Amino acid sequence: MKALIIGCNGLLGQNLLRTRPGPAWDLVGTGLEKAPALPESLSGYRSVDVSKRPELEAAIAAFAPDWIFNAAAVTDVDLCERDPALAGLINRDAVGWMAAAGIPMAHISSDYVFDGEAGPYLEDAPTRPLSVYGATKLESEKLALAHSPRSIIARTMTLWGRGKGSKTSFVDFVRDSLKAGKPVRIVTDQWGNPTLAEDLALGIWKLVEGGHTGTYHVAGSEWNSRHQWAEAIADHYGLDRGLIQSCLTADLKQTARRPLKSGLRTDKLAAATGFKPRDVGDQIRRMDEISPTSI
């Protein structure tokens, strides 16, 4: 079986490559970069700008995959609010172009399809996005499922982890700031499930290999506030909780509205696959096991 990982150089893309179930899967990838981040994990690679339909369609035709895993997106929600045309092009239109090939897709969506008033949410909860980002992700879900009955939507949230070239994670930011004696301002009114990128990748592979279809939530097993998450980081590393200052989302004056009482329930994932993503403590311990020099 051949899987094409769109966005294979990103955090999730790299973890999809690293968690490949076995040699039965031949992995090929695309990314904006001239060279892949993990060349040893791929049998083929193309530099592709997914906003350019001919480039994207040519890559799909050349690789002729059995599955497309779409790990490419504009995830900066404030940028999406400022530039809705870019958000629509990458997060919605490009997904439609991928899906139109008729190849089964594993497509990544977000808790931002919900309004954050009654989380954590099951898969069939009513959707009501508050932002351009959330709206484009909801539209992309419908496009991804439209052309193949075998396709999968994996909704996730608050993704973090390590990867080559990846931006600093929330865990690293909090830990490094507290170690340096610097105070950090963390919101108390945003709730959800911190999710390790490795667990999201594992969950997606289990859904694909198990022949499951439709929409699933794949997120960490612990539901907490972002402030509580920061406290857990401080406790894990024996650092001073007193440096964690409380604030509200409104204090940050961000461009896009956030779903505040968010979160994703993963009952359906557990019932289908038996897989339960890690809680916050186990996620941090897992990352501690991985030497930064091996990334």
Describe it for me?
With about 300 residues, this protein is an alpha/beta fold. The chain folds into 2 domains: about 1-160 and about 195-225 and about 260-295, Rossmann fold (3-Layer(aba) Sandwich), CATH 3.40.50; about 170-190 and about 225-250, no CATH class. The chain is about 35% helix and about 15% strand. The strands form 4 sheets. A 7-stranded parallel sheet has the order 3-2-1-4-5-6-11, with helices on both faces. It has a two-stranded parallel ribbon with strand order 7-10. Strands 8-13 form a two-stranded parallel ribbon. Helix 1 (about 10-20) crosses helix 7 (about 195-210). The longest helix has 16 residues, at about 85-100. The chain is globular. The model has no long low-confidence stretch (mean pLDDT about 95).
In brief:
This protein has 295 residues and is α/β, with parallel strands linked by helices.
Summarize the topology:
Layout (H helix, E strand, L loop, with lengths): L1 E5 L4 H8 L7 E6 L12 E4 L5 H11 L3 E4 L6 H6 L1 H16 L5 E6 L21 H14 L6 E5 L2 E2 L9 H10 L4 E4 L3 E2 L2 E2 H13 L4 E4 L6 E2 H11 L7 E4 L1 H4 L14 H7 L6 H10 L6
Parallel strand pairs: 1-2, 1-4, 2-3, 4-5, 5-6, 6-11, 7-10, 8-13
Antiparallel strand pairs: 9-12
